[in-house]
Sequence to fold (863 residues):
Amino acid sequence: MSSSTLFLRKATGLVRSWSVFDAFVYAFFSINLITLGLYIFSQMYYLEGGLLTTAVVSGIIILTQVVVYAGLIAVMPRAGGDYVWQSRILGGGIGFVLAVTGWWFILWLWTPLYSDMLRHEFFVPLLGILGMQGAADYFAWNPNAWFIVSVIMIGYITVIIALGMRSYARVQKVCFWVGLAGLAIVFLFLLFGSHDAFRAGLDARAPEMFGSGAAGGSVYEATLAAGEEAGAVLPMTGGSLAAVFLAMPYIVFFNLWPNWGATLYGEVKGADDFKRNMLGMGGALVATTVLAVVFFLLINKTITWDFYTNANGAYWNYRWGFTDQAPPLNFWPYPAMLTMFLTSSRIVQFVVILAMSMWFFGWAGTIFLSSTRVIFAAAFDRVLPEAVATVHPRTRTPIWAMVLMVVPGLIVSILYVWDIANFQSLTLMSTLVIAITYLGSTISAIILPYTKKEMYEASPIAKYKILGLPLISVAGVIFLAFLLFLLYQWLIDPNGLYGIGLTNTSSMVFMLAMYGIALVIYVFARYYRRSRGVSLDMLYKEIPAE
Amino acid sequence: MPRLFFATDIHGSDICWRKFLNAGKFYEADVLVLGGDMTGKALVPILALPEGGFKATLLQQEFFLPDEGAVADMERRVKSRGYYPFRVTAEELAEFEADPAKVDAFFHQQMLDVVEQWMALADERLDGSGLRCYVCPGNDDAMEVDEVVCRARHVELAEGRVVELGDGFQMISTGWSNITPWKTYREASEEDLAVKIEQMVGQLGAKPNMAHTVFNFHCPPYGSNLDEAPEIDDDLNVKEAGRSLVPVGSTAVRDAILRHQPVLTLHGHIHEGKGTARLGKTLAINAGSLYEQGVLQGAVVDLDKRRGVRSYLLTTG
Fold:
């Protein structure tokens, strides 16, 4: 029986395949356990939903997001992501406002957050290991140092972007393997180390390396006491279902990003590509969740969950200004550094912390790369001036797009680092605004089979149905409900848990300013282009075929 | 002040060709220009089943087609994506599988037949419209496509010659590209491509007015961001899941643009490379392509005798 279903000729662009593993690496870095994960877990010390349970349940729900985005890619590949999907399905104005706020403006706020992670996972521990206690303390607490780290980080990202995607992909691959090796060593230390050894190591080495300590007592004991005073209650497992759900608006800071690399693939590909996208993004989400679970269990075994949570509580309680009492452990309780108190070898400590920092360096480029894409797409649509899409003729660096990221990023860093106008309370705003962007794409996905019927029917996902309904719509509805739940909790914040809701004036002003600026740019562009004889309506209108 | 609509790389998509023909009226354009690569890349057999009905596989989904209506609908869907449907029996399909030369010949004929049909449709739709329509086959189009285009009454072949766009604007075109890994019909070394381009520039006259000249070159200029394509390995597998982008444009095209500085250049070839770039005084546009989705990406450009490019817009129609 003949079996050929397709004959291809030699033609430009016909590629054979792409590696699911490569897609996995990018998504795996985007839901970054070591940077985003550990940073946000540490801030959740006062919540009552089990962290492990919350990570697993939220991960399962976020799989619907993977379906939504893999579906959108399958129907409209090579289109450029949220901006293009939304502008083509929901309309140009909505697409522009939601995309530039979620993929450009709000990433300014991520600048100080990224640099905060960098200083705590790279500068502070390495300086402490090198015996530079004063410098470590300076980088841990001084806003000037934090700002310096922001500038260094922006410099690094600029170099990465100037090197181009090809080099960045290579850098990322190296960082992936080195970072994983570092994590494996941390896991081994935790697996074979004992709690007593950890406690002894902490009490002996933290004062020596970082100057940690309580008046004449054990750092360990003092940290437990400070944490309890701070109200650290976060359990590893358990908590009521309601408590678990109330922890989700926090944890999504870490795991809402498997779709970050939603992008382009080859031609004449079908359902297989949809499945491969699912595997790449979904696999990364599952693998990261599993790694988080293992990390929690190992922390519980050797460091103990009690100490971990109390150390986090003591740190953030002081940093957020709820107490004047500095934490006995006078640096961010980075689990990798805590683990390294199990060894007295400075070389091992240095190598492992350096290896673990690859989780940052392999990931940091994403902050501006995605923004650059949206800025370019908006410039090609003539909503932004053509100049912002220009690249340097020799280095091919998108100079103006970088300026549009770097300058506001530094301004927001100043506001955040020195906590001007209560800016440090806005951490979760970084996630909220992107969630609103996802909301637009999710609604686009839900209605896609009905509003772009022909395009949907011609796509490889048309055959996937649940109870006769398109899979992308069903997954979209579930994910939409999740996003609406998150937005309700963040904005209304009935339990006062997240601090970015309607009661936070800075938060509301910042958010409205971003949406306002986006709207003004769009309205101005429409008016200006019309005065030049070009209607932006032409951008998205479909030409009749008959 | 001529308004030009440019689209490219529709690769056999029936719906995109129909949209292209309607684009003049839709965008109120005076001139239609289709860049290269009109022909499709895939044949989709629609297999007659011994027990009756047909079956076909599109995008790795198998469809049973019980009657003529279902088969016609499938053929329409296949054509919309830019592929060529053909009905076969199991025996005929086995012959195709056993004989690649037969597949090649059939493919070739299919391409020419479809272009022939398209030209007939253009003659019908453009008749009396006053629109000028230029087509310049690209590196993926067989040489015989030119002859088919030349037979059309309302479509002009633009390859290798100077054509008028109105208001004193002229355009030279070539669908040839630099060497690709796919060894397609119209590829040349950078040196040969440079010679071809200079021959065309020579046709513009001794002192051509580059402020009123458009280069319609299928291949985009090297390193312009309009030529960024996913990096592939020797076996044509995409590296880094498509995230590693590399410039693959032509240095000859780039040099020609920088040397002559035409007011506008139009490109395609790299479907992912939609965008604009400035090379000195020249505005370079790659309209990109989403032909498989039946979406006609294009560029609407208003040319002005005094200002050159008065305005432009990249469209998704």
